[in-house]
Amino acid sequence: MADIEDLFHLGGKVAVVTGASSGLGRRAAITLAAAGAMVVGVARRQAELESLCREIGFTATGVVGDVTDRGNLPALIEAISGPFGPPDIVVHAAGINTRQAADDVTPEGWDVTLALNLSAPFFLSQALVPAMKEKGWGRIVNFASLQSTRAFPGGIAYGATKGGIAQLTRAMAEAWSPHGITANAIGPGFFPTELTQAVFADPDRAARNAAQTCIGRNGRIEDIDGPILFLCSDASAYVTGQVLMVDGGFTAK
């Protein structure tokens, strides 16, 4: 029988987390580092990345960059791989929700949403996969959403990308899991992050969302720790192409 601690230990692994400057991305970076991984956080805000690295310590570094800039992707990959070597784990936590109603969606809002939420996870993964193939081991974790399967007001662009993420995850698994690379997604419910400030700023709305769950509350930041560690470790070696809803049972009701 495998040692239980070894199943979840990430010593010797390198993880890159996009959107690491805040919210669930920041928490994912902290969790993976606590499990022994060397972590590269990627975001556009340098001060927040520096704060993250101070909290984690010498096993973390930050790379300031825009994951939607495909022309700069080779340079970004070089910067990500420089400190600790090519990543074994990639967590795509960067995201945006413009909250434009269907009748008000602009081409600019649509394009920036698709570029960050859907295109960036694919092209960054595609660039990192060759090194994972050489090792015969890799973990890709995308961020899905309640809107991967449900429609919310003002969420047509965001929902389209998150529905796409669910299918992208399955397609990544089909393409790359024969090489030892699993691809899965986490579908968070309502967590208090920058992306959901508008939701939690309305106490009545937050309370309605909590009542919709089976557990009876909204997410706490630490609720993401176990799921992210599971999907990034050997504990999930036979799990791929799946969307794990971390929503307190919101989608079960």
Give an overview in words:
- The protein has helices at residues 4-8, 23-34, 46-56, 73-81, 107-135, 156-176, 197-200, 203-212, 225-232, and strands at residues 14-18, 38-43, 60-64, 89-92, 138-143, 181-188, 243-246.
- The protein has 253 residues and is α/β, with parallel strands linked by helices.
- It has a single domain (4-252), classed as NAD(P)-binding Rossmann-like Domain (Rossmann fold).
- α5 links the parallel β4 and β5.
- It is globular.
- The mean pLDDT is 96.
Write the layout of secondary structure elements.
Elements: H1 4-8, E1 14-18, H2 23-34, E2 38-43, H3 46-56, E3 60-64, H4 73-81, E4 89-92, H5 107-135, E5 138-143, H6 156-176, E6 181-188, H7 197-200, H8 203-212, H9 225-232, E7 243-246
Parallel strand pairs: 1-2, 1-4, 2-3, 4-5, 5-6, 6-7
Helix pairs in contact: 2-9, 5-6
Report the uncertain regions.
Answer: none
Class per helix and strand makeup: alpha/beta
Number of self-contained structural domains: 1
**Mass-distribution shape:** globular
Number-wise, the strands total 7
Helical content, roughly?
40-55%
CATH fold category name: Rossmann fold
Strand neighbour order, sheet with most strands: 3-2-1-4-5-6-7
Question: Which superfamily, in CATH terms, is the homologous superfamily?
Answer: NAD(P)-binding Rossmann-like Domain
Strand content: 15-25%
Q: Identify the CATH architecture.
A: 3-Layer(aba) Sandwich
Question: What assembly state would you assign to the polypeptide chains in this entry?
Answer: single chain
